[in-house]
Model the fold of this input.
Amino acid sequence: MFSKILIANRGEIACRVIKTARRMGIATVAVYSDADARAPFVSMADEAVRIGPAAASESYLVPEKIVAACKATGAQAVHPGYGFLSERASFVEALEAEGIAFIGPPANAIAAMGDKIESKKLALAAGVNVVPGYVGEIDDTEHAVRIAGEIGYPVMMKASAGGGGKGMRLAWSEQDVREGFESVKREGLNSFGDDRVFIEKFIESPRHIEIQLLGDRHGTILYLNERECSIQRRHQKVVEEAPSPFVTPEMRRKMGEQAVALARAVGYFSAGTVELIVSGADPTGESFYFLEMNTRLQVEHPVTEAITGIDLVEQMIRVAAGEKLGFAQADIGIEGHAIENRVYAEDPYRGFLPSIGRLVRYAPPVPSWSGGLRGTDGVRVDDGVSEGGEVSIHYDPMIAKLVTWGETRDAAADLQVAALDDFVIEGLGHNLHFLSALMQHPRFRSGNLTTGFIAEEYPDGFHGAPASEDTLRAIAAVAAGIEVSERARDGRTSGKLDGTPPLGSDWVVRMGGRVFAVTLGEGHALVDGHTVEGTCDWRPGDRTASATGNGLTLGLQVKRDGVHWRIATRGAEHRVLVLPARIAPLAERMIEKPPPDLSRLLICPMPGLLVKLHVAEGDQVEPGQPLATVEAMKMENILRAQKAGTVARIDAAEGASLAVDAIILELD
Done:
């Protein structure tokens, strides 16, 4: 067994590997860029080596720097995590040339499966079902248009070396191909150093299901059940769970056996995942097709660990050290259900735009990395950030992974809702409310999932999870109680003898266009004539609280916003104004300032790089016409005209780094 390993990665996956290595008695070495000098994984490791500037191309993606760090520290093996160099065969060969072990599969398997064009050819030869498409290199946009027309729309354009949702575009028409092909090439080149693109048929109503594999160097290859990863946005996974609510035992066996056959064909060992697209329209589950094989650990591996009890990182290390797997296919069971939500730095209320900045407050529902594979009381938080740290434009926007385990799928989802209520993030945009809404959504609870779930259920964007009347009345009662407590505190600190409004006083609560009449009592409130019995443990200055009301238990996040309160719970933030009943009529006479008309301006909706301007000064534009392309978090976003007009002035040049709300151009 190794005595010291180096982790050639950053963030939560670096912390994940360190945790298991520490339990195994193995010393760890972290490598870090200037942007990560104060990151938790750096202090968590036994040793740390600086490898360059913030840009990944000058640090984490430079094999020579990783090899040098191994030599300087005496690390005997390297765990690559995921992303960066994890699927680069030349990196494995460079390590082997220096006598350093790679904690992952052999270079030939990475090369075979890492090239999506070649991997499809291998899958066909191995008898694996593949998605219909063009298996070959595409010369240019015109060639892409011809191929897409021959396959039949809709089609998916993919970077050959892509992954993680990057380098992918869905095309419903020739215009989509013409607009998106070059973007896919650029994303592939910028993220993976390879601009080759292939095109395949888009399977409608698809489910994304993947098989976890684990093999040793002695010829054993096993499948560790499946994961459902159908809930995605822009082809990037948001929610993963194991097992799939769709897969039957017979389907699981067939998928697993095909995945093992493919892995065996390339001499695979270590952890890996075969991704499949499954037609949700086929109730038999027979229509499943090979998408790709990820020759590395997956972001969503914790849900497999939770239902099998197998530490995948530990097994990868043991396999790399030459050990045999200590279990057989018959030993792998399924216990309970696990769900993982990816907590991203993005603002779902603004079209899921990426967000960067400082984590002014960061408090997960349970301590990070506490407990075992199922966390603490069924709640596990895998993260690589801490309060005061920054989420930068240089790396992936994922803040944390929230994993819950329960005896049933509903139990795991209920735990997610409760944990998300208790997850505190301030200082930048986050998707906590959106994740909670997903967990409560009737369609999610039914298990009727497709990769189009988010687009289908939120066609007009996300505006907060809907709240029942009982929940709204409970929030109204809580808000009135909070206002009373705050006024009492203000009264006492200002020197008044008694600043507490009396019990039985009447209040008006305005919330989301609704008006509630509230009368407070001891241990209860009357809200619009309905009695709400319960308690709330909030005290002035608290940011979180718990409340009960008529059988409901709500985790609350509370903060002052001028004269209003912001109360977040169950996937929505409610802006609440609480006034004494005698004063409330006066509030209706207050004049609100209308927002300015910004429709003539093209404003950058996120921090990013202006990759391309599609128009020049003096050009006539029509609604929906592409005006500019901005790259943020390594993904390109096309900004379009909201209305017709003439380009009067361009305020930013191609190649410029833009702040959020920066003006790119103006229309007459």
About this structure: The chain has six domains: 4-103, 116-130+206-335, 132-201, 337-465, 469-587, 601-667. The two ends are 69 Å apart (CA to CA). The first helix runs from residue 11 to 23.
